[in-house]
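Field guide to reading this record: the first block holds the primary sequence, the second block holds the structure written as discrete tokens, and the final block holds curator observations. Each block starts with its own label. This record concerns TonB-linked outer membrane protein, SusC/RagA family, catalogued under organism Chitinophaga eiseniae.

BLOCK 1 — SEQUENCE
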Amino acid sequence: MNPRYAKAMLLLCLSAASSGPVAARALVPAVWQQANPTVEGKVKDVNGNPLPGVTVLLKDSQRGAVTDVKGSFTLKDVKKDGVLVFQFVGYDPQEVKVEGRTSINVVLKENQKTLDEYVVVGYGTQKKVTKTGAVATVKGAELQQSPNVNISNSLVGRIPGIIAVNNSGEPGNDNSRIFIRGRSTLGVSTPLYVIDGIPREGFARLAPGDIESVSVLKDAAAAIYGSRAANGVILVTTKRGKIGKPTINYGFNQSFVSPTRLPKMADAPTYARLVNEILQYGGDAPRFSEEQIKKFGDGSDPWLYPNTNWYDAVIKNTSLQNRHDLSLSGGSEKMTYYVSLGSLFQDGIYKSSATYYKQQNIRANLDANVNEYVHLRFDLAGRLENRHYPPRSAGSIFRSLMRGRPTENAIWPNGLPGPDIEYGDNPVVTSTDVIGYTNDKNYVVNGTLGATINIPWVQGLSVDGNFAYDQNFAFLKTWVKPWTLYTLDPNSPDHKLNPASRGVSAPELNESFNSNRMTTVNVKLNYVRSFGKHNLSTFVAFEQATFDGDTMLANRRYFISDKLDQLFAGGDKEKNNGGTGFSFARRNYFGRISYNYKETYLFDFNARYDGTQNFPSNSRFGFFPGASVGWVVSNENFWKRGVPAVDYFKIRASWGQMGNDQIPSFQYLSTYGFSDGGVMFGGDLNKGIYQLRSPNEAITWEMANNYDIGIEASLLGEKLSLEADYFYTRRANILVSRSQSMPAYTGMTLPQENIGKVENKGFEVVLKHKNDINKFHYEVVGTVTHAQNKILFWDEVPNVPEWQKSTGRMIDAPLYYKAIGIYKTQEEVDKSPHISGARAGDVIFEDVDGNGVIDDLDRIRVNRTENPTWIFGLTLSAKYNNFDFTMLWQGATGASQYLHTESGLIGNFPEAYIKDRWTTENINASWPRVNDRDREYWVNRQNTFWFWKTDYARLKTLELGYTIPGMAIKSIGLQKLRVYVSGQNLVTIDNVKIFDPEAPMGSGQFYPQVKIYNVGLNVTF
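BLOCK 2 — STRUCTURE
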């Protein structure tokens, strides 16, 4: 007999003997209940939702129970020292000691594998197995592997469908231009960014450590965002608290930054010879003698014959960048929290740099379970962005660097700055705060209050809603003051320097203040239910957003001192002020139906009825549907029998209509502007107004019809997986101007009309392989994205030759003369059609129309642009014991950039331009003869010689980490300590060689892209 039962019987007998029959009858149930109580309770998820179907087992026995639809369970006859085991598919099992309690409530957490099997979609989540749209996801942990502080620079190569171009590495202005599946419009191609369910700005400046995941909606899955979805949607989910004891995480990065590539310029002796050649071609006498050229090279007289490397004079070898991140997370079944603080600093690459970027950010995500039916969320995020620059732009500074003649001093031997190149521009000085500063501060606050209410009397029915308020204040202050440069007195034997004030004649101050506010309200009615093998998830919703702002600006000149940079200290003469404001609103009705049968036959339908004030009141709303289907073929018996090696195989297809309303407002109204002059009434000048444009009352949004077909497969026990998509987009109603303009004397232009049409098509492939060999785990992920667009119609000017038409070619395909070589001899020039004045050493233009004359009709439409049509990514990651390793290679092809520097007598040449240039001794050269700025026809007429293919491959990210063993750090109170080294843009393989392959079109006058060497640590307390 069980000892507990024997003890209970003995007590019962003793009690009966002393108290009589009545007492015995009263005591029996009390003693029995105290010995083996009945335990009741509820099981919920971390969001407070009841979990039906959870198995509750009494450990080391065969007894148990299952939770009902309300997550409740009852288990009788449970020992006081018993242990209950809670198990549910997709959740971490949990053991709870009874300890004599009769009521036990449990919260189960989803295990990481289950979380990986879900993707964030518009206004919700879906299982990967049941998703029917083209949705790609990257974890925040993967983005943290990049030491780049700008998130927009960390996506390309990791997410299929993302095409990105980074034109600048300037702190605070280093965003990548992102296209989802390339460009499909002649208008704005920017995707919509949604942060924690609310469309918001500021994606690039989010702290990487705060990001849980980033999802990209690329097809009909984006239709739920209606008139803002045509360019794709990027969804960001930030981290939330989890049940458990408080956990503190601290991360630190120290980075060392340098340009990926700077052009190597000609030295002084070489440049002196180039100047002589230029003068010789013009019939002028040489400027430098051989003796002078020798002095430039031997350094014997640095005052009169310097050999200046302007880049070395201005750019430092290494600049610093660092980041601190601190977070606190944890909670109970009633409330969870995630709170973070962060700061970063990016220095510019100039010596004595006035360029830097600072950021401080804070975030608090709170979740509270008021009761089993009500769940509240409160999110608050703040950010201060502080951009600091010299008053001269980066383009101006690098223009001076490119043009700096090596035969002139940037800095005199005594350390004083040399003369300017023009307009006071000596980049040694203009890159510093000696000339003043531009201080751009942007304060951002994002707040969201949300609630979810589970309707108790209808299973699966719930209501949720959000109220979001976003506010930002921007204060821009530009202070410019005179600066001093020095020129050498030619008549002084002791190198006397004459100072000269440059730039402005007296200090100037410009200030502006912007305040922008956005309020978003949405309410959603959800119904999620399973009926046997039928699974239904649906919702209908309403959302409204208002956006308004105000701007004030003022400026003054003629400050009596450069020590007081405040408006009141400026002169009254020529002072000015102004201001403006705007208001904008949206209203939307939308919903989704998701149905699947046995998670095998899948169907999704999204729809949005979208309204925006960009369009006339009688045509302000539009309907944007999206439908997708899927079939998990591997669930069929015939597949399991016939193709057992393929564990999972799904086919899916989608179609959606989406809009793009990113256009200037109020084009359906006549707009007016103030004239420069006016009418005098008495002694006052009253400004006149004039009409700027005629209204287009039929204006509407662009409409994109998106088609997608894809497959998903895994085999070999999920060691190998494949996902591939083919997509086609046809965009209509694109807003463009007609080819014939309004006569100039009217002062007006024709309104733009919705007449443009573009198609865009391509494919994406993701191939993954992962495996474990003893303690060694590795993964290989390869991605390929191809997207190419074509203009179908945009009212092109009539009678254009076929080879010059833009219709039928890519958006922004340029019109250039076709360069086919370099004239070796004057005889070649004379025997071929050529531009008047052409000579040996010039670039040969093809006579495209064959009429024997080179003119504008010989230009061709080149079907390449600055945006790549192919993006490749290869990620290699591995873990062994406490070591981890990640490498990301990223490449791009299909792009070209037009790059020609301002070189000649005006300034220096890149060495590559002139190393193998044409001369009478080198007639088989690969480069033309030296030229003076744009005097030659093959410079002032754009041609394909300067249109360089910029295909490249980069070692985008490299990281090696080591986690200190737990036993070694437990004694000092640490849970985890990881140290690592990493890098960004460490290696670039391309054929450009002179500039970075992502350089913007132009003359090389841009802040360069950067490579980053980084050391860091992560600590968990």
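BLOCK 3 — OBSERVATIONS
Residues 1-34 have pLDDT under 50 and may be disordered.
The first strand starts at residue 39 and ends at 44.
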